[in-house]
Amino acid sequence: MLGFLKEPVVVTAKINVSLVALTVMGLMSRLWGLCYPRAVVFDEVYYGQFVSLYMKRIFFVDDSGPPFGHMLLALGGYLGGFDGNFLWNRIGAEYSINVPVWSLRLLPALAGALCVPLAYQILAELHFSHCAALGAALLILLENSLITQSRFMLLESILIFFILLAVLSYLKFYNLQKHSSFSGSWWFWLLLTGVACSCAVGVKYMGLFTYMLLLATAGLHFWHMIGDQNLSNVSLLCHFLARGLALIIIPMGLYLSFFYVHLALLYRSGPHDQIMTSAFQASLEGGLARITQGQPLEVAYGSQITLRNVLGKPMQCWLHSHTNTYPIRYENGRGSSHQQQVTCYPFKDVNNWWIVKDPGMQQLVVSNPPRPVRHGHIVQLVHGITTRYLNTHDVAAPLSPHSQEVSCYIDYNISMPAQNLWRVEIVNRESDTDVWKTILSEVRFVHVNTSAVLKASDGASLPEWGYRQLEVVGEKLSKGYHQSMLWNVEEHRYGKSQEQKEREVELHSPTQMDISKNLSFMAKFTELQWKILTLKNEDTEHKYSSSALDWITMDTNIAYWLHPSSGAQIHLLGNVATWASANAAALLYLCLSLWYLLRRRRRIYDIPEDAWQLWMAAGGICGGGWAVNYLPFFLMEKTLFLYHYLPAVTFQILLIPVVLQHLSDHLCRSVLLKSMFSALVVAWFSWVYFVYCTFSPLTYGQPALAPAELRALRWKDTWNILIRKQ
Length: 726
Hints:
- By secondary structure, the protein is α+β, with helices and mostly antiparallel strands.
- It is 44% helix and 12% strand.
- The strands form three sheets. A six-stranded antiparallel β-sheet has the order 9-8-5-4-1-12, with no helix packed on it. Strands 2, 3, 6, 7, 10 and 11 form a six-stranded antiparallel β-sheet that branches. Strands 13-14 form a two-stranded antiparallel sheet.
- This is Protein O-mannosyl-transferase 1.
- GO terms for molecular function: dolichyl-phosphate-mannose-protein mannosyltransferase activity.
């Protein structure tokens, strides 16, 4: 039984020494001097705020994209023991001793370093030579812009890593398709493709471009499989389901999991939760939750409520009234009803309280048992402090003359009777018998007499006589359910005091009743995702912003950091030799492809069929990757920066060795031409290395250069190299 012990156990492994060496060089280039400078560098001032909020478990919303990339940066802070206590308010600010700079910058640096071996393997999986794959990896290794971007607490290097991993995984899966379908390795690479795509999208929505490219490629490959008569219908169905599971279902589930973890970590109220609905705010610890915890769930006749406008723009506000009346005449000469003003007030106040009254009864307290208000019921809304009824009539609103004025009715004994009946319409109801619920129900108030809908004007602030509060109107044309017409009950108590003085004391008091209003994860996810997609900060012109056209010729740069006393500085600048070569390679690839297509149309085949298929496959991945990651920026209305081009230029760089090998194999037909071409390639690569070394002081921030040396590096007049005055 123990005979196997008579012989030594031998394990053999194939190690690609080139791949190992490239990985080591990638790590050295990205990790060397990672803590330098020990100061906030460019967008670290932006991402660092979110890392601190993760450390403190405080909820935030970032309209730039999903949370996965932020969580990875926060993971670096967590592993380094960061407590979140640092004021991220200024680029160049020195990090305090409690900030683990190396740990915070580690994951982006590792991702950037691993892009080097990934580039090698992608070219190898495309069936190009070892020299071509090695050249692609070295070009990524010596690309100054990729080094700079990966050495700081930024997301682009992580995004590019997942993009390249997704491409490599799909190529490995596709190459296994011919002889190892449904094997363990086949499933591994297919599933990894979907996971990497989901991670790329989870870091930044720019990852969607490559994800769509791979889905289109997979669809094209499956279309070709349909024409394969050797595959049965059952086999085709299994292939289709496997791809659907791995490339659509699993990525969607993983994307949801990013938000699940994000929301699980950030359970405390913070400054950003005010843009969320009341229901979302109430689900967070602290803030609104401290006020609304345990409120009655069902709104009943006699309920005391505050009504928050669902839109929340330009700021959150609550339905409000006060004793002041509308002026008899406005500045433009139009008259008003001189009734009590009704506004939308952006602060919590006792004058935000209203009482839900049954028009058929006089009592302003909740009966026992409570009589809940349902969808379609007619109610009156009584202002809690002044006891006047919410009213609207055919009088023009002060700032919106095409809408009706909304007021609290004062009886002046003139021919203007009260019109204070409102129909409650629950927009997000599940049935027509739904009960009006605290926080959860989004409600329209439709005026019974005129069919006008209670609405907060879009950003219209009243003059001084209205204390600059937001206008509230009765919208006559109420098509659809615009959020400015929707209201939800935020604070709620069951009224007990019929006497006005006792009621005023009650309105000033907090409530505590034991009813929970927790939102489901999907409800939170849907709301947060919508906010991310629709909440856009005002785009302002930045000193280093640029247009997409500036990127191709690198007519722009970004100064990331400047030493406070010396000339040491860090810039986002690409390797001029590599970027120029990438543009030339893309142009040459396009011209050659058009030439080959025209010739093939005439039944003239200049290159073998397998070489043609290889040429087109490489163009689809490398050229297609450049196009889908670059061209969409011409359609975007946002402030753009040079780093937005980095995913696209990475694919374009991979196209350089593709074109060089093609020229060597198919256009240099003699030994002499091949030798001359090889010598030119060596000279060209020496130029690439020279440019890398020349600009490395601006890539790593050291050594500090003298003003004359800095002027010598201004190869283009449009580059903003910082030179201190002597």
